[in-house]
Structure formats: structure tokens, C-alpha cells
Specification:
heterodimer; A: about 240 residues; alpha/beta; Rossmann fold; six-stranded mixed sheet; four-stranded antiparallel sheet; 9 helices; 10 strands; about 25% strand; globular; B: about 260 residues; mainly alpha; about 90% helix
Chain lengths: ~240, ~260
């Protein structure tokens, strides 16, 4: 269970999060949608402790991670995966080395076991033929899939995805969202996605949170939000 | 006046931030979290990157020093002193300072650009998100490698500089080879060598620290990478020059 309680964050004179408050159930796929600059990515970064709130808290498994030191946060993050908007793969490592990195860092798995696990996950994301390539040799969609493989290689309990479809064409966007859905269900991990891709979000989400100017303006299942009579929601989802 | 006040405040704040950055790195070392495989990887990269240019510069410096000093010393009938002048100049000052400049331009720039690119592409944040301390994974290995590589390069530079001076002294100035070698060996005392060599550890720390810090501070895309890299090199040049004066004064006061 993840609980975000009355989260406030200000950068300079700009308030980005204005008392954000919601919960996520275990195993749920929750999509945070909103216009560009509405605070989705900032919210996601608070949920993994990359940013600290001015006030409020983020409670994961009964632990308030917004109060933990960076050293303790590093340990907590081992059980979480984070898919960055641009992939954020190490450009000095091959795809295989990138995906194997968390295993080599946090487990004592033997070389053969690491190889098997990485190859399995690369097969799952459709990159088994690209394991020896460097990120610069991959297309945007392939980079996202490699980054997704790296994010879930530790069998993460929680997966965060920041704008997984940005910069991708509609077909690749659909394919990456389907992949996230498949992996989330297969690993039974709680998944939080920040996206402005409404079509695909409505398709894969269990629940959607709509954020506007740092405040949650609506939340519910895709059907509930689609059928809402609120003018802003109508404009946003239809 | 207000501008000057804000500038000074900004400068003090940046210096404080940089100091905390270094203390963070020292904390990692004190906790024994040193990744030796990464350190040796960096030693190889930094050494290979600098060795050719340091070899060329050192030989040329030794040769030019011998050429110039031969002209001057011949006027006083003391051309045999060329060997002493060359070796002492190189060992006490020129090799440590010139090598540090080159190291800063090659290795410092590389570190700042590499880490800066990682910063703007979220790779450093991704390291944290994967539960890995970027200080431990990226910064400490680079600083430790610099501490190992630069002193080694300086000794290498001194040897090649002396060799450059020897070639000019023997084949151009006509000083007998045995005389030149004898003068060189007996000119250098431990203090002469130590006074130059000890400084290189400070220079190495300064260069790697500034480069890593500027890399971690980089923002503003490719433009930012260029700006922060230039800043890293310029700052380390200035600090090497200033620190050299202070360290030389201390060393001379202590050992003469």
C-alpha cells in the first residue's frame, strides 16, 4: 500500500504540488494524468524519495520515506523500479550490462544466473537480439524497453514509470504501455505511471488520478472518469 | 554594491556546497566503500588519455630549458650547470605544474563532461533510483584514480624532461654524456624531489574534486555541459596556480 498524504512542494515561488492526497492498493496499476507541467513527474519523484516534500508524507509499507536519510532511501529503492522519461540508460554500458547492473549491485547471483535472468527479461521486452548494443545504437522505443527491463529486473514490488510514451509514435506508445501492463500483471507489482497519453492510460489503468496545477481534481476507474459530466473531465478524457 | 554583495554570497555558498560534496566523498572512503575495480578502470582511462601528451610536453620542456639555459650559462662559462638547472627546474616546479595543467585539460575536462552528460540525461538520478550511491559509484573512483595517476605521470614527466634536456645538452651543447648524467644524479636531493612530488597529490585532488563537482552541478542540456566543463577546467587551473604558490611557500619554509 502506498499512501501520499497532503504533499506540498514549492520550487522558488512556484508551488508545484498543492496538498496532493491519494492511496494506491497493492498490485494496482494507477495512472497519474494531467497537462504538461501539472506536477506529475515531481509527484512521482517524491514517491521514490528522489525529491523531498516541503510538507506531507509518502508512506510505503508503513514507512514514511519522506523522512528517511539518503542512505536509508538507497536501501528502500532496491525494491522499486523507476522508468525514466528518456530511459536514462548508462551510455557506457551495453543493453545487457545496463539490465544486469541492479543484479550485480544488490545480489550475490552467480554470473550464469545473472545471464539467464537478463536474457529472460530481454526476451520478454523483445530485445533479446540487442543485448550487445549500446543505448546510442537503439531507437527511442528500444531504449524505453531496455530501461523497463532494467527497472523490473529485481522483481520490484513497485514500478514507477515517468512518461513512458513520450517521443514515441502511436503504435510504439501502445506497444510500450501494453508491455508495462503485461509485466506489471506478471510480476504482480504495484505500478504508478505518470502520463499524458490519455488513450493508452484509459486502456491499461485500474484507476486514474487527474492532477491539475498541483492538485488532484478527480480520481476513479477509467469508466467513471470517462462518463463524468464535469466539463474539464469531459474535455480531458473525450 | 548590491551586485557585489550577492556575488560574494553566491561564491561563499558555492564553495560551501563544493566542500560538502568533498566531505561526502571522504565519508564514502572512510566507510570503506571503495570500488577498486572502478578505480583501476579509471586509472587506465586517465593514464592512457594523458600519457602521450605529457611525454611530448615534458620532452619539449626539458629540451627548451636546456637550450635556453645553455645560451645563458655559456656567457658565464658554466655550461656544465645546464644539467642541474634542467633537472632541478623540472623536479621542483615545472613537471608538477605543467603535468597538472595537462591533466586538468584532458582528464578534468573528461570527468566534468562525462558526469555532466550523465546528469542532464538523468543517469545520475537513475543511479540513485536503483539504490546505488552515485558518490560511491562515480565520484570516489575518479578522485582516487586521479590521486594514483597524476603523481605517476609527474615522475614519468620528470624522467622524459631530463631525457629531453640530455639530448640537447649532450648532442647540441657538447657536454660529455657522463658529465651530464653525473650532474643530473647528484643535483637532486630528496627534498628537491619531495617538494615537487608532494604537491601533485593536492593538485590531483583539486582537479578531480572540481571536475566531479561541476559535472554533478551541470544543468541546461548540451549547452550546460560545455559551460560547466569549461568552468571546471578554468577553476582547476586557477586553483592549481594559487595552491602551488601556497604549497611552495610552506615547503620552502619547512625544508628549504
Amino acid at each position: 500500500m502506498i499512501k501520499v498524504k497532503k504533499l506540498f512542494k514549492t520550487f522558488g515561488s512556484q508551488t508545484v504540488l498543492h496538498g496532493v492526497d491519494f492511496e494506491i492498493k497493492p498490485g494496482e496499476i494507477l495512472v497519474i494524468v494531467g497537462e504538461s507541467g501539472s506536477g506529475k513527474s515531481v509527484l512521482l519523484q517524491h514517491m521514490i524519495g528522489l525529491l523531498r516534500p516541503d510538507s506531507g508524507s509518502v508512506v510505503i509499507a508503513d514507512q514514511d520515506i519522506s523522512r528517511l536519510s539518503e542512505q536509508k532511501l538507497l536501501k528502500v529503492r532496491k525494491d522499486m523500479g523507476y522508468l525514466f522519461q528518456g530511459g536514462a540508460l548508462y551510455d557506457f554500458m551495453t543493453v545487457f550490462e545496463n539490465v544486469a547492473f541492479p543484479l550485480r549491485e544488490h545480489t550475490r547471483m552467480k554470473r550464469n544466473a545473472v545471464m539467464t535472468k537478463v536474457q529472460d527479461i530481454l526476451k520478454l521486452v523483445g530485445l533479446d537480439a540487442a543485448e550487445g548494443k549500446f543505448p546510442s545504437q537503439l531507437s527511442g522505443g528500444m531504449q524505453k524497453r531496455a530501461a523497463l527491463a532494467r527497472a523490473v529486473i529485481m522483481d520490484s514490488r513497485i514500478l514507477f514509470c515517468d512518461e513512458p510514451t513520450s517521443g514515441l509514435d502511436p503504435i510504439k506508445s501502445r506497444s510500450i504501455m501494453d508491455l508495462i501492463h503485461t509485466i506489471a500483471r506478471k510480476l504482480k507489482c504495484t505500478t504508478v505511471i505518470a502520463s499524458h497519453d490519455i488513450v493508452n492510460s484509459l486502456r491499461i489503468a485500474d484507476r486514474i488520478v487527474l492532477i491539475r496545477q498541483g492538485t488532484i481534481v478527480a480520481q476513479g476507474t477509467p469508466d467513471q472518469l470517462r462518463s463524468s459530466q464535469d466539463a474539464y473531465l469531459q474535455e480531458f478524457f473525450n | 554594491m548590491n551586485f557585489l554583495f550577492n556575488y560574494v554570497i553566491g561564491l561563499v555558498a558555492s564553495a560551501g556546497e563544493a566542500l560538502f560534496f568533498l566531505l561526502d566523498a571522504v565519508g564514502v572512503v572512510l566507510r570503506g566503500k571503495i570500488r577498486w575495480s572502478e578505480v583501476f578502470k579509471q586509472v587506465y582511462i586517465q593514464g592512457v588519455q594523458s600519457i602521450v601528451i605529457i611525454a611530448l610536453t615534458s620532452m619539449a620542456t626539458g629540451a627548451v630549458l636546456a637550450l635556453q639555459s645553455y645560451v645563458m650559462l655559456s656567457r658565464f662559462g658554466a655550461k656544465e650547470a645546464v644539467a642541474q638547472l634542467v633537472v632541478l627546474s623540472l623536479v621542483r616546479e615545472l613537471s608538477p605544474v605543467f603535468s597538472s595543467f595537462i591533466f586538468s585539460g584532458k582528464v578534468g575536462a573528461r570527468i566534468a563532461a562525462e558526469l555532466g552528460t550523465m546528469k542532464v540525461n538523468d543517469q545520475i538520478t537513475a543511479t540513485r533510483a536503483m539504490g546505488v550511491d552515485p558518490m560511491e559509484f562515480l565520484v570516489v573512483p575518479r578522485i582516487l584514480a586521479s590521486l594514483l595517476v597524476l603523481p605517476g605521470l609527474v615522475v614519468f614527466s620528470e624522467i622524459l624532461g631530463v631525457w629531453g634536456g640530455y639530448l640537447i645538452g649532450v648532442y647540441n651543447a657538447g657536454i660529455p654524456s657522463s658529465t651530464y648524467v653525473h650532474q643530473t644524479i647528484y643535483a637532486v636531493g630528496f627534498v628537491d624531489f619531495f617538494s615537487g612530488f608532494a604537491k601533485t597529490f593536492f593538485f590531483a585532488l583539486l582537479i578531480a574534486w572540481i571536475a566531479c563537482y561541476q559535472g554533478f552541478k551541470t544543468s541546461g542540456g548540451s549547452l550546460g555541459v560545455g559551460q560547466y566543463t569549461t568552468k571546471a577546467v578554468a577553476l582547476s587551473y586557477i586553483l592549481v596556480v594559487v595552491t602551488n604558490v601556497v604549497l611552495t611557500k610552506i615547503i620552502l619554509a619547512l625544508w628549504g
